[in-house]
Description:
- The protein is globular and about 50 Å long.
- It has helices spanning 3-19, 26-29, 35-51, 66-72, 123-129, 151-156, 204-216; strands spanning 56-62, 78-83, 87-89, 94-95, 102-112, 130-141, 163-166, 182-187, 190-196, 227-232, 237-238, 244-249, 253-260.
- The chain is α+β, with helices and mostly antiparallel strands.
- Helix 5 (123-129) packs across helix 7 (204-216).
Amino acid sequence: MDQQKIEQYGEELYQAFLSRRAVAPLLSREPDISIEDAYRIQEQFVARRLAAGERIIGKKIGATSKPVQEFLGVYQPDFGMLTSGMLYEEGDSLDLGQMIQPKAEAELAFVLKHDLKGPGITAMDVIRATDYVLPCFEIVDSRISNWQIKIQDTVADNASCGVFVLGKTKGDPRKLDITLAGMVLEKNGELFSTGVGAAVQGSPANAVAWLANTLGELGIPFKAGEVILSGSQSALVPVTDGDELVCRVGGLGSCRVKFSGRSAA
């Protein structure tokens, strides 16, 4: 795909983000689009957000768990960039009117104390470089109509990044078994799903190592202080006005988020 089209689709996704109006799947219009093309489009999309005043504060891994892969029809992990405009903390009000077609997923966030650059990074390297882990919610939001996405669509759309909400309880991954720790997700006081760290590429640390190595081959490091979202341990949760979600991670703590307003779709 030539540079003109790369820039065209990156701009289209940025305008969809601004206007909160979804666009037709890219793959339906460009059947030959490659994953490499899609990442170049993602880079253009993110660059427009940075030019508007945001900054990169971390990275996310997407499509790591079987339930999410089955829902999306995507069967390999992908990644996106986290920007300062996406960050919320537990207790903040989350307005659905800022999104198009949001869905929530519960996962573990890693906050780094050291830089980390692949290739050659192992799960143990990830644990050593981590300052602490937090329970969190990622609110994914596709700029592609009706979530009609294949891997190329979600990659171009910055891995369907919406916003993310960090919990307040910090855990030391050297003392917490993040592989076997169970996660319980409740929606409006009722059990919605259960999960475990091993559902994410065998361990959340494995997923983070995969991303460190994948980005390292592109010359992109993890930096101290960055937040790395390790991938969903729950099924995707549709959310509407008034919904409240709580995820609880065994041995760590919980994260709670409440939604108000109405999304664009």
